[in-house]
## 1
Amino acid sequence: MASFTLQKVIRDNEEDKNSQASRPRNTMAFTAMAFVFFAVSAALTLGGIIWYLEQPFSVKGYYGMGVFCTIMASFTLQKVIRDNEEDKRQSGRMEAIVD
């Protein structure tokens, strides 16, 4: 959840910088919550693997890489879903113009 929210905040803020149209932005509270929640959840997960998992370093590294890959996959999945939805809306507008 945290990585999806963080990705949304970053992308929305970048779109607002490049857009001439006015649209509601994320509030500072929501932006701060997204960054803090992401950092805390990642730190707790990795901290649990490093300090409380009583396994060899190779096993800890495997789990750590699994967490990293999960975070990266969630960023990618969120981007793909959002891009697909934007493409659907854009193609709907183009069909309306052609008709």
## 2
Amino acid sequence: MTPMGKGVKAGKLGFKLVKESPVGKWFKTDSNNAALKGKRHYTATEVAQIQQQNAIKSVESGKTKLKNNQQKGNYGEMKMDVHYESQGYNRISKGRVTKLDQKIAQGIDGVYEDSGPPPKFIIAEAKYNKAQLNKTQDWRQMDNYWVQRRLRSAVGVKKYNDIQKSMVTNPDSVKKKLVRIKHDGNVVEKELNTDGYIIKK
């Protein structure tokens, strides 16, 4: 079970809280919502995923226009979550975006884990359309220094240690990715090197 993240409002999605513990929250569908009748119980993560899908659908159907960089960035992060989770990865980083107008959090956009073949971990940054990685005199967004300074707070101590151990035993098990979400909704992945630049193949 995964604790519900900020920005998730289950009631508006037709869910009712049925159990809460230090571990997480469980929801069930509101019996008054005909569209959701017959469904099973949902975890907080599943509720968040449904809210992401609803927000994405609203944009891609033309119902909602992306008005500013905040909305474009949040749309991109939600698309990235859906992209990796559809491939069997689990998001292990905090701060899942579930609304277009959600306050932008500083740090790594998403860290994902897969129990299957390498890469086991993906550390990813989402950029909408032509937006670029940030750069200062001392660091570049997604270079190894920038990532290491933010990784522990993104995933917690245990997962941070798991990632560090995985990098030592098999360097190919951890990859950094730039995930570009095009204006038409298409998703393009590019692997990044130690300095945060795209690896040209």
